[in-house]
Amino acid sequence: MKILKFGGTSVGSVENLNRVKAILTADQEEKIVVCSAMSGVTDQLVRLLENIRFGDTDAITRNLHRLENKHADVIDVLIEDLEVRNKLKDGLSIMITEMFEISSQQYSEEINSKIITYGETLLTYIFSGFLSATGVHNVLLDAKEFMYVDSIENPNIEKVGKKINKVLDKNIESSLYITQGFVCKNKEGQITTLKRGGSDYTATIIGAALHASEVQIWTDIDGLHNNDPRYVEQTYPISHLTYNEAAELAYFGAKILHPQTVSPVVDKDIPVLLKNTFDPEAQGTVISNRIHKKGLKAISAKDGITAIKIKSNRMLMAHGYLRRIFEVFDNFQTSIDMITTSEIAISLTIDDTSNLDHIVRELEGYAEITIEQDHSIICIVGESVINDRNSYKLFEILNYIPVRMVSYGGSNNNISILVDTKDKIPTLRFLNEKLFQTQEEAVV
Ligand code: ADP
Ligand code: ASP
Ligand code: MG
């Protein structure tokens, strides 16, 4: 069994859905296919949620009609048989009516999750119908029947496994299953999500739950690149990454992967392949536990970082003081990404600021607090990167860009620097030139 996940662009047009079909039918292996919403649709649903929040019924109507038309247009071009086409469009109308009904209710977290996950529901319904209409037998699975994820950080894989096996047992005649990414159910059995970009994570959770032979993540680029191709020219795909490297890069902003993508499959040693829907022959990236090459591999950047400086003349480093400070973050379930210390001050970073006010209020009991927002962590990643002879060059950045913090040696595989977000792109470009375009011979 293999798991194949197709992202928004891959399922974003008639032409691309045909590409996906060609990839799925290239061999007869048993597959579970996880699909995102068509590109742009989840963002449109976010706007719809704003309309619901403000009770703007005209905008809700306009938004839902636009959504229906977008999907109906796809059905029109995809499906030749008039009867099948009309049947699929009837199903689409029923779903849009459900969405109207939900949109008329008072905004709540539950309404939010119900609406935002419809993009995946609509697309998988159409795609499964299209495959069937063109003679590709498949079964559409409702992910809400098995994606029970009590804790997003630590999903109970066994529970998902039991539930999905039950669903599969009811459909043993098929070797191709289509399901939705992103959506899941929480402890209370309510619909929720794996956060934006979460379909990658759906794929690896299912992969781990079913002990799949591999998980393939099909997207619009030929693998994970050594730097962010949205901001830096002359990046290149990396053929092999270890789980550690991929986890660091995903957590620290490499958009190609949801931050938690690799965690479910690491213990089970299931490889994750990153492949390009538009160039299926391209090698892409293989993520596994094999170290192919040590040293510097890639750079990523994570935005939305807040730096907190905690300064105290009262023996900051004295026994027990740090514990009390960390307890404050723990009490407010806020994780810390970077940390540096001196005798009288600690600087640390967080990305979740939902409890920042409470945290600051408590910390002010012990120390003087300074907050700096709109920062980015730039992360330089590779197995043993701290031993890479080229890595020292990154410190030349200090000549050009004000660096707020540096974290070196916390792990052998990651060097992080914190800069103001306005300096992120120049930093990524500078590091690209220094670290990748003037490589001295090999590493470690
Ligand atoms: P999907 O919709 O298939 O999930 P995403 O947009 O989430 O696709 O991820 C693919 C995009 O990630 C690429 O088009 C690219 O712009 C961006 N990206 C950012 N950093 C990297 C990187 N290091 N390597 C490859 N792509 C990256
Ligand atoms: N459609 C969702 C999003 O845009 C999930 C995903 O694509 O992975 O965030
Ligand atoms: Mg994505």
**Tally of contiguous helical segments:** 13
Task: Report helical residue fraction.
Answer: 25-40%
Give the strand order, joined by hyphens, for the main sheet: 3-4-2-1-7-9-10-8
Give the class from helix and strand content and strand pairing: alpha/beta
In N-to-C order, the SSE pattern is: EHEHHHHHEHEEEHEEHHEEEHEEHEEEH
The shape is globular
What is the β-strand count? Answer: 16
Uncertain runs are: 440-444
Major beta sheet, specifics? 8 strands, mixed
- What distance lies between the first and last C-alpha atoms, to the nearest angstrom? 38 Å
Description:
Helices cover 36% and strands 22% of the residues. It contains 13 helices and 16 strands. It has helices at residues 14-24, 41-53, 57-78, 82-103, 109-116, 118-133, 157-169, 199-209, 243-251, 263-266, 321-331, 356-363, 424-436; strands spanning 2-6, 31-35, 139-140, 176-180, 183-185, 191-193, 214-219, 240-242, 272-276, 285-288, 298-311, 336-341, 345-350, 368-381, 403-411, 414-420. It has an 8-stranded mixed sheet, with helices on both faces. A 6-stranded antiparallel sheet has the order 12-13-11-14-16-15. Helix 2 packs antiparallel against helix 3 (57-78), helix 3 packs antiparallel against helix 4 (82-103) and helix 4 (82-103) runs antiparallel to helix 6. The radius of gyration is 24 Å and the shape is globular. The two termini are 38 Å apart. Mean pLDDT is 94; it is low at 440-444. The site of aspartic acid has 12 residues, from loops.
